[in-house]
Each structure stands twice: as structure tokens, then as C-alpha cells.
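Internal tracking record. Fields below are filled automatically when a chain is submitted to the structure queue. Please do not edit lines marked as system-generated. If the sequence contains nonstandard residues, flag them in the REMARKS field before resubmitting.
Queue: standard
Priority: normal
Entity type: single polypeptide chain
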Amino acid sequence: MSTKDYLEKDYYAVLGVPKTATADEIKKAYRKLARQYHPDANPGSSAASESTAKFKEVSEAYDILSDTKRRKEYDEARTLFGSGVGGYAGGAGAPRGGFPFDLGDLFGGTHQQQSGTGERIGDIFGGLFNRGGTTRAGGTTTRARRGQDIESEVTLSFGEAVEGATVSLRLTSSSACTACGGTGAKAGTTPRVCPTCDGTGAASRNLGNFAFSEPCRDCKGRGLLVDDPCPVCEGSGRGKSTRTIQARIPAGVGDGQRIKIKAKGAPGENGGPAGDLYVLIHVKPHPVFGRTGENLTITVPVTFTEAALGAEIKVPILKGLPVTLRIPEGTPNGRTFRVRGRGVARKDGTKGDLLATVEVLVPQQLEDKARGALEEFRDATAGGDPRAELIQQARGE
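SYSTEM-GENERATED OUTPUT FOLLOWS
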């Protein structure tokens, strides 16, 4: 089936359903018509021939409309061409009888079919489907090519990762060859337009009902062929360049995170945009602070008397003077306290918290006076065995 026939057929009318019909409505209509026009249900040579043709038409319509992707492509194509190829809504001057065409023209193909007005259909719609291209004399369009994405790595201190930093990155990427100016041809010579793709850099590929463009295999998408290549770049038109840029690393990045810096990759060709830069982040560990998501963590040592009697202690923060944290009496070892707004910066401008976990210190050596005081404390608090219940639970008693 040709593309013209495909677009002129109204599959909704064949099944007797509106364009807004649901998948269930389409299936119901198809089953009804399939039973009606099945050749086995219409014996006789004349009736069988007519029913077979109708059955094939109904099956073809259902095959398109029951597939979500193919239905969408069909609807979009018919919307683009009005009520079909012959009804192309071209405005004043459009040929009444329609025109022959290939959808490859619409997507930057190389077909030279002419319409009744002598215009290439690819030229009519070229601006729609070849955004960013540059036009040469004669109407051929050289496709703009986006530059390659490049990758780099950077190592930050713990504080730089939390607060953000501006770093210098030395990048090596492809760029236009300085010897030939990016043409790929030896000095004193010029490349010629690729005859396969007519200089567009793209060739048409038929995928059933539609033809899509892909890079030309002969010129590798450049649109040009080089007979006498540049000895420096060997005809590729590309060379290596090294540059240093200043990149802003946002606050709150984590170790192993990969961030994208837009348009800092390799430059494009034929006016195409530059690629992107992807930076892999490495963060050095901090001797005091750790990190859990948007919160910083710290372990704070306290004495036995501070934990038992309560105290106000100083806790360091990443930037600035220490903050005062009140420890209530009877604080157990390992309890975590939250200091609001002293953590990692979030995207909305707020900050996470500092999580301070107390660690009760047990003295390694005791003077006689301290030992005597502890022995008096032991005698004063003597009571039942604190592990008795634990032992009973372990025994299942």
C-alpha cells in the first residue's frame, strides 16, 4: 500500500466509528463487521469476492486503529494533510488534484519528486522538520549537528560539596580542525556535495507507512565528500582542542553524583548547538562531620556526670561558631539531638539539620577521690539487678 493510499483511507469510516472512539468501541465495531463480512458467512462466488474485499478492508482498519502508536501516527499524518493527500490544505495556489510525494521529503529526504507547481515538497516543509539547518545555494539543506557530550571529574572538599564551589576544569574535546577550517579537505582544495544525500547529510529510510531520515552512510551525515583529505585530521574536519573553563558546582552535591552543565561540551557543526558537560563528583571525607542525605552528622563526647545530671555543651558546626546544645539529665548513651538549619543546602534554599549523637565517655583511670565518690554513688543506687528482666525474657519465662 502506497503512502498516498494510506493517508486517503478513512479507517474510522470503514469501521463506522467516530475519531474519538475508544479502544473497546473500535474492537466491538470490528468484531461485528468481521462476522458480517467473513467469506464463510457469504457463500457464492460473487458474494464471497465482495465480502472478502470488505473483510480485508475492515481488518486493515482495525490493524491500524487498534495499535495505539500506529493510530497516533495515522491521526497526525491525516491532520497534517487535511482530509488526505488529495485534500492537502495548502492554501491559495495548492493543486486541486493533489500531488505525488514521499514522506521522506518531509523529514529531510533526498527525493526529487516535483509537485504540480514545480516546488519540492521537502522545500515546502523543510523548515518544519529541519530546525537548525543551514541552507546552501540551490536549495539543499545541510543538517546542523549537535556537538558531542563530554565528561570530566572533580574532587571537592567536604565543605565545598556542602556549600557549593566554583572550580577550574581542563577539558579536551573535538572541534573544527585548525588546518582545514573544518572542511576536511587539504589546503587549496574544497569538498564536494555528497551526491547520495544531495548535501543534506541524511538519507530516507522506509519503515512501512512512513519514511524517516537517518545519517547518510556515504558522507557519515556531513553532506560533503572529500577527495583530497586534510593530512592533519585525515578528512574528518575535526581535531582535538583543550580549554579551561570555570564551572559552578551547586551546593549539596554528594560523592559519586554526576551533574550536567548545559552547552559546555564539544562545539557543534554547521551552526549546531554545543553538547553538554557531565561532571563526576568526588568528595573528600571530613574528620568530624558525616552526611546522611540533607543532614550533617556528628558524634559529641559527654561525661558520665553531664549525661546523668544534664548540661549545656558546645557543639561545632561546619561553618561558623559552635552552637549550644542542652543535654537533659538522664540522657542515655547514643541519643541523637537535632540542631535545625545547620545541615546541607536544599534546592529551595533551605537547609537540612545537624544530627548530634552523644557518646558517654567512661574514664580509663580514676583518682582515689573520684573512685570513692563513685563507690558511694554505687551504694546509694544499689537495688535490683538491671539485667534480671533481660535474662528472663531470653529464657522465655
